[in-house]
Amino acid sequence: MVVKGEKPDGGGRSRGGRPPQTAQQHEVARARILTATRAVFAEHGYYGVTVSRILKHLGMSRATFYRYFRNADEAVCTVIEAAGDASLVALHASVGEVEGSIAKVLAGIEAHLRWSSEQADIAQSLEAGIHDPQNPVSRMRERVHAEITELLVTEANATGRGNPDPLTLNVYITTMEHTSYHMRRTTSGDEAAENNARTIMIKCALALLGTPEDWKLLEADPATLGLAE
């Protein structure tokens, strides 16, 4: 995709100057560009990311930028995909540490809340792109949702809970997403707001994915599932 106001892929690439001397220097320079790109994405959203705006954060020449990325679109897509990867890494790590279907769901909620906190600076720009097919956020979201769905189906089948209804899974995952985005958008992400979001997510998990036994556990000891009485 060619971002408005940018040169086509490869068209702006410059060979001037000397490239970094080591792989480490290369990675440091590339990371600096991505940090600046993330800041522009946070402030202006996907369609507002341009090389000029990225360079304002860097103090770097345009020629140097094009040694690392073909255009601003490639840089911002890298930032967006990295956010999606971070979500899945956190999810797999948390879910892998516990046993039991509901325990894994709760661990997944905690992982999502941590990820949401880490992405707070770009939360609004991510949310703005989730329903826009032309926005790479939408593609990243589809990939993440597909992997979460696969995890939920695998766990449900492995524990004899049956094959979950696809619409139910979609509603559950979308609810988790909406709750965290709403929290980041409307509050400063303080402890009270995060606890409220956690409670809502757990209740939705029980309502959509829970069994009668799960509800009995909640009734007997709400704190077991992270809920206050």
Automatic annotation (TrEMBL):
<feature type="domain" description="HTH tetR-type">
    <location>
        <begin position="27"/>
        <end position="87"/>
    </location>
</feature>
<dbReference type="Pfam" id="PF00440">
    <property type="entry name" value="TetR_N"/>
</dbReference>
<feature type="compositionally biased region" description="Basic and acidic residues">
    <location>
        <begin position="1"/>
        <end position="12"/>
    </location>
</feature>
<dbReference type="InterPro" id="IPR050109">
    <property type="entry name" value="HTH-type_TetR-like_transc_reg"/>
</dbReference>
<feature type="region of interest" description="Disordered">
    <location>
        <begin position="1"/>
        <end position="25"/>
    </location>
</feature>
<dbReference type="InterPro" id="IPR009057">
    <property type="entry name" value="Homeodomain-like_sf"/>
</dbReference>
<keyword id="KW-0804">Transcription</keyword>
<keyword id="KW-0805">Transcription regulation</keyword>
<keyword id="KW-0238">DNA-binding</keyword>
<protein>
    <submittedName>
        <fullName>TetR family transcriptional regulator</fullName>
    </submittedName>
</protein>
<dbReference type="InterPro" id="IPR001647">
    <property type="entry name" value="HTH_TetR"/>
</dbReference>
<feature type="DNA-binding region" description="H-T-H motif">
    <location>
        <begin position="50"/>
        <end position="69"/>
    </location>
</feature>
